[in-house]
């Protein structure tokens, strides 16, 4: 770092994204992307938007916000207006806004000790204190640990890196018992089997639900996320957005987002394929002696009692299969594996079987 860097950031430990290696062609199962391309409708919309790139995009994303509120109402039986949604440059941006808007020296952030790695980074860069609550020995979030937590709560549901989810009833109990603090429910992986809390928005003014187009909607490269909450919460977050980057969604991404929402059948078909493939992978891994968390996401979290986690990650990488390994002590023996296409996962299973056979005798 240079001698000019503010002392505020001297000890900042940045978020480490998944590897994007260029040294060879990998079966890439390390960053929870969709194995399926964006819908043809979304691609056509994005292409048409290139004719207007000389102009700034609509900073309020009015067309997309209107279509999104209609979509959420149809999906969840709600009556949300455009004032209840806020579009963001990936869900990471709106998470950052939430740390900035709802946390300070008197209102710490509260989140699990094993979860999305960006949470402590957002807290540190906003210079707010935070408290980490340990997962259980079964790597589950225990709802009662968050009763009257005394801060802004961030819960990824399903949780990263485990894929384990709380029920809507359990989340609602957390919201009810923290009426004076915002509860942020990060639903990046909700479309693969978990219950969404969007239909609780009208009931609780302290609930912020965040979702993304990156996973189930095949738009990781386009960077589109959104938050849903009371109009008052959205105004708070908009104050932050308009004070940092009011043109945060580009025209092509906006157009593609509308196309995705108008092609929900395609999204749901892809989700079904991913769930079916996940179930196949779980059966195969259990047959090899692996222990897995109860993931209902687009990834699995696995370990083997006789194989060291980091060694297995390295062996898979040598053979052209890229998964994600974390060094936190409690999960150092695990590897996280994104669910790819059926063909990709068959190669993963075959490669893993060869490694296990050579290691476990």
In short:
By secondary structure, this protein is an alpha/beta fold. It has ten helices and 13 strands.
Report what the structure shows.
The chain has 2 domains: 17-37 and 265-355, Aspartate Aminotransferase, domain 1; 40-262, 3-Layer(aba) Sandwich (Aspartate Aminotransferase, domain 2). Helices cover 36% and strands 14% of the residues. It has 10 helices and 13 strands. A 7-stranded mixed sheet has the order 2-8-7-6-5-3-4, sandwiched between helices. It has a 4-stranded antiparallel sheet with strand order 9-10-13-12. Strands 1-11 form a two-stranded parallel sheet. Helix 4 (118-125) links the parallel strand 3 and strand 4. Helix 2 (62-76) packs parallel to helix 7 (251-261). The longest helix has 24 residues, at 264-287. The mean pLDDT is 96.
Please identify which CATH superfamily of the largest domain we are dealing with. Type I PLP-dependent aspartate aminotransferase-like (Major domain)
Instruction: Report the CATH C-level class of the largest domain.
Output: Alpha Beta
Overall geometry: globular
Structural class: alpha/beta
Mean pLDDT: 96
Q: What is the H/E string?
A: EHHEHEHEEHEEEHHHEEHEEEH
CATH architecture of the largest domain: 3-Layer(aba) Sandwich
- What proportion of the residues form beta strands (DSSP E)? 5-15%
Spans of at least 5 consecutive residues whose pLDDT stays below 50 are: none
| Helical percentage | 25-40%
Give the helix tally: 10
Terminal residue distance: 48 Å
Spatial strand sequence of the major β-sheet: 2-8-7-6-5-3-4
CATH topology of the largest domain: Aspartate Aminotransferase, domain 2
- What radius of gyration results from the CA coordinates? 21 Å
The number of distinct β-strands equals: 13
Oligomer: single chain
What's the structural domain tally?
2
């Amino acid at each position: 770092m240079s001698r000019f860097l503010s002392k505020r950031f001297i000890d900042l430990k940045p978020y480490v994204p998944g590897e994007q290696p260029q040294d060879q062609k990998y079966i890439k199962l390390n960053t929870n992307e969709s194995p399926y391309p964006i819908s043809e409708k979304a691609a056509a919309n994005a292409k048409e938007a290139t004719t207007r790139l000389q102009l700034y995009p609509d900073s309020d994303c009015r067309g997309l916000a209107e279509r999104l509120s209609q979509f959420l109402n149809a999906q969840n039986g709600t009556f949300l207006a455009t004032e209840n949604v806020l579009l963001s440059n990936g869900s990471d941006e709106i998470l950052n806004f939430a740390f900035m808007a709802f946390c300070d020296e008197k209102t710490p952030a509260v989140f699990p000790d094993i979860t999305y790695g960006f949470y402590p980074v957002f807290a540190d860069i906003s210079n707010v204190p935070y408290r980490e609550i340990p997962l259980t020995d079964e790597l589950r979030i225990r709802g009662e640990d968050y009763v009257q937590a005394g801060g802004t709560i961030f819960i990824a549901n399903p949780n990263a890196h485990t894929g384990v989810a709380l029920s809507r009833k359990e989340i609602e109990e957390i919201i009810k018992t923290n009426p004076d603090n915002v509860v942020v429910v990060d639903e990046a992986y909700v479309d693969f089997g978990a219950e969404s809390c969007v239909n609780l928005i009208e009931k609780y003014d302290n609930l912020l639900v965040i979702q993304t187009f990156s996973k189930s909607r095949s738009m990781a490269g386009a960077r589109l996320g959104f938050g849903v909450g009371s109009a008052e919460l959205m105004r708070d977050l908009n104050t932050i957005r308009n004070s940092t980057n009011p043109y945060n969604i580009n025209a092509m991404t906006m157009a593609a987002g509308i196309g995705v929402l108008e092609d929900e059948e395609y999204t749901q078909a892809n989700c079904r394929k991913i769930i079916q493939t996940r179930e196949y992978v779980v059966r195969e891994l259990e047959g090899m002696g692996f222990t897995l968390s109860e993931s209902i996401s687009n990834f699995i979290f696995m370990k083997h009692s006789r194989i060291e986690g980091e060694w297995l990650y390295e062996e898979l990488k040598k053979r052209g299969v890229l998964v994600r390994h974390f060094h936190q002590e409690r999960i150092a023996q695990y590897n996280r594996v994104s669910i790819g296409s059926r063909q990709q996962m068959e190669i993963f299973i075959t490669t893993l079987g060869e490694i296990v056979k050579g290691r476990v005798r």
